[in-house]
Amino acid sequence: MSDINALLTPGMLVQHPQQPGWGVGQVQSNIGGKITVNFREAGKVVIDATQVTLILIGST
């Protein structure tokens, strides 16, 4: 897991670097390298933190 992904906690706002059309998403959980994010345009998506480094936008 990348350093930034390890720091993500529920409520933080992120973007997926390869899916800009998904818009900003809110982290729902970060457990065992699986990050669940609720994106505005894509809904709830589970991200494998070993494959994708999310872009931190901020927190709610």
Report the mean per-residue pLDDT as an integer: 94
Instruction: List the domain count as a whole number.
Output: 1
- Biggest β-sheet description: 5 strands, antiparallel
CATH topology name, in short, is SH3 type barrels
The count of strands amounts to 5
Q: Can you write the helix and strand succession as a string?
A: HEEEEE
Kindly report how far apart the N and C termini lie.
23 Å
Which terms summarize this structure?
60 residues; mainly beta; SH3 type barrels; five-stranded antiparallel beta sheet; 1 helix; 5 strands
Outline the structure in words:
The chain is mostly beta strands and 60 residues long. The protein is built from one helix and five strands. The chain has one helix at residues 3-7, and strands spanning 12-15, 25-31, 34-39, 43-48, 55-59. The protein is globular, with a radius of gyration of 10 Å.
Would you summarize the structure shown here?
This protein is mainly beta. The chain is 8% helix and 47% strand.
Tell me the layout of helices and strands.
Elements: H1 3-7, E1 12-15, E2 25-31, E3 34-39, E4 43-48, E5 55-59
